[in-house]
Amino acid sequence: AQSVTQLDSQVPVFEEAPVELRCNYSSSVSVYLFWYVQYPNQGLQLLLKYLSGSTLVKGINGFEAEFNKSQTSFHLRKPSVHISDTAEYFCAVIGINTDKLIFGTGTRLQVFP
Amino acid sequence: DVKVTQSSRYLVKRTGEKVFLECVQDMDHENMFWYRQDPGLGLRLIYFSYDVKMKEKGDIPEGYSVSREKKERFSLILESASTNQTSMYLCASSLVAGLKEQYFGPGTRLTVT
């Protein structure tokens, strides 16, 4: 079975500052990892995914994440945030032999001018 | 472009009513999912279907049932709505073989009074 922990429920940050949203997972099998974003009153949109290969994954809107197998982490980063990045971000994990995504509880990113 | 649609964005029902939430995908995906999203709890899987007429319980199936008569359509049914089923409901779909990425609909915010 897999589980996901998002350590921060809320992250406030000023515009143009860097941000890191933390995600740790546990699994007894190999996994794929995802970050989704949810803007107010919308469904979830895929930001980026790690399947294999390079541990640094680049996604949409300037976001990137790094897979660290030894620390079982998949933290999301952006070097300079914009007001429009205000949203809720979900980390998710799936075992390579299953079809069920396991989601974290989400991190609300609030960007202030 | 991938498309998952849900029949209603907002729905208000009375306690005891039978409620149908419809989801349609146009990507010929085998898998379809119903999630419930509540603040601080992330997304929790209610039911999952991997083929027409096939279904599997998720983490919180109590009080819900599902129907999948056609590949593109997956319905969530609340047999007798209760106030604790007030929530955001999200539908998603994915390929069986492939990269496991799930595509989400815009969500239905259900209020049971």
Describe this structure as you would to a colleague.
The complex is a heterodimer of chains A (113) and B (113). With 113 residues, chain A is mainly β. Helices cover 0% and strands 53% of the residues of chain A. Chain A has strands at residues 3-5, 10-14, 19-21, 24-26, 31-38, 44-50, 56-58, 64-68, 73-78, 87-95, 102-103, 107-112. In chain A, the strands form three sheets. In chain A, strands 2, 5, 6, 10, 11 and 12 form a six-stranded mixed beta sheet that branches. A four-stranded antiparallel beta sheet of chain A has the order 3-9-8-7, with no helix packed on it. Chain A has a two-stranded antiparallel ribbon with strand order 1-4. In chain A, 35% of the residues are buried. In chain B, a hairpin with a 2-residue loop joins strand 7 (64-70) and strand 8. Chain B is globular.
Chart the SSEs and their pairings:
The complex is a heterodimer of chains A (about 110) and B (about 110).
Chain A: E1 3-5, E2 10-14, E3 19-21, E4 24-26, E5 31-38, E6 44-50, E7 56-58, E8 64-68, E9 73-78, E10 87-95, E11 102-103, E12 107-112
Chain B: E1 4-6, E2 10-13, E3 19-25, E4 31-38, E5 42-51, E6 54-57, E7 64-70, E8 73-78, E9 87-94, E10 103-104, E11 108-112
Could you name the key traits of this structure?
heterodimer; A: mainly beta; Immunoglobulin-like; six-stranded mixed sheet; 0% helix; globular; B: 113 residues; mainly beta; seven-stranded mixed sheet
